[in-house]
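Take a record.
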Amino acid sequence: GVNLMEFSDEILLHILSYVPCTDLVLNVRRTCRKLATLCLDKSLTHTVLLQKDYKVDKDKVKQLMRDIGKEIYQLNMAGCYWLPSSTIDHVTRCKNLVKLNLSGCHVTSLRLSKMLSSLQHLRSLAIDVNPGFDASQLSSECKATLSRVSELKQTLYTPSYGVVPCCTSLEKLLLYFEILDRSREGFMLSGQLMVGESNVPHYQNLRIFYARLAPGYVNQEVVRLYLAVLSDRTPENLHAFLISAPGSFAETGATKNLLDSMARNVRLDALQLPKAWINGSGLLQHLKFNNPFYFSFSRCTLSGGHLIQRVINGGKDLKSLTSLNLSGCVHCLAPESLFRKAEDDIDSSILESLVVSCCNLRHLNLSAAHHHSSENIGNHLCQLLSRLKHLLSLALPVCSITDVAASMEKPPTTPNLVPQTFGRKVRIGIQTYPKNLGDQANQKMESSVFWALMGSLRFLETLEIIGSSFSSAMPRNEPAIRNSLPPCVRAQSVGDSEVAAISQLTYLQSLTLAQLPNVLTGSGLISIGLQCQHLRTLSLANLGMMGKMVYMSALMDMLKHCRCLRDLRLEQPYFCAGAQFFQALSHCSSLQRLCIVSRSGTLQSDAVMSFMANCLEVIMCHMFMGESLTVCKNLQQSIVRSFQAERPALNVVIFPLLHEDLTEVIRDVPMRHLDEITLFKSRVAEEPPNLWW
């Protein structure tokens, strides 16, 4: 046999790099002398990642810092919401820290001051600013450390400048605005900064400015205060300016001055602006670009003609562009938008110019729009996209992947399907489907444009196929949506065969399918489970007819093969979360997070408890169903009482979907879970690649 210890140190170090640092230091290095030495190698202790080490607790962190604190140069504790604030005190042992991420951790002003006072080499910092934060409590030593910080990521839960005024050497500033319009008591909040918050930020060295706003007018008020300084004097070295704002975010005189100054003085490599700042303006015509790597025009009314002329210079070489977000740009593939209907066919020449010019695209988002191809041979959207051989992530509307001829045919129906607009509760049993359905699907797929597209994008890691009219039943700060819009007519034929085509993506890691109306059995899901063995994230929403959970049997068969699946999100009316489903889900031995959203859905408490006992890695269980508040509360309390001690990161939310207090419950969900899985959204090209670590 082969003795592992006979391998060279280089091979062993490579193997050990896949082991969490806490296991290396606290367990593996105690097995033998050789591993004791290797586990403390600088290549393994230089960077410590705890952000998704859900088993780590305060005692392990304390011991880790005590053993290797001086060897740590980069520490990522983002999203460690379960660790008490006292845990942060042990970070002071890491005297050589250069990069520190504490986003999602509980840190008070005093604790932050004490910690930063001892980190004189720190250059990169990520923190949250919560209600009660007081910059006047920061010591002079702390401010001295902040004055040397060049990269800052700040998540704001209260109107504040946070530590920005202390960071006089900023080159990269990332701001996440998560301020609610109302307090827990129901009082309206103001966007005015607190007393003592009048210090002016220092932007003179700024190279990257990024701001992402959650819904709400307070967030808009506060971000304007941050932008006011930029409008007075635009940094000469600014090369990335990005503002992601949902809904309407009106342009003001100050922001117009800022954009005019940018047009005169800077050359950008990355750009994202609120739609109101772009729509109807000639801004893009005046902005200058250097070697752009990221563009986002999400929800803008930008026409394809303007896109080609003003952004990619009439089809000139734009090989530097690696990420492009055109989600919600309903006219971006049409020459003009003035007299065009959103459902009209696209102009394939515009897409062809885009593909030729941006041939190195790795991330492309075309979702939330009707991109209908014409009948011209060779000009289908899927055929043109197949030329982008470097794509790693792709988001498309359902209606864009159908063959034109097939979309004109009436989709197959079965006599027991319930019309979508009159969904009723039905008994859910084991669905049956013909054994030769896979063979029938293969014959259809091999001649389809979507089959060919999937075959050409062999290295795709993330795929989203989302209905152009789909909206989740659980939006951010509003009551649950009770009715959904019908799917696009062109999407009516998209179903099992298209789902099966996805199984060609051997390296697929994340898959989102929403509003595929012609899913009759879900047989394609089984093919994905068998072939896509690297699948880690799966999100399924409103597949098939809305009145029935028609694909339950196939889903359960699929789950038995998903050994690497970590995140599962299901959104389907009338979903029955019973014993058979959870028994199948128990085969997903790596599962960590589960979210089920189901109007009029039911669950079996005993089955849920058994599932939680069998799947030891699960640390998040969110269920928003049709059960009563009493049933939900009792089950939630039982799970917490039974498993919280063994799983410190356990987060359980079980609540009626249509309850009036749903938004109050949502606000207590850790941002990591809320942003990554609980809330439905398209995530392809949502941010520039490698924006933060």
Q: What stands out?
A: The first helix runs from residue 9 to 16. Residues 73 and 97 are 4 Å apart (CA to CA).
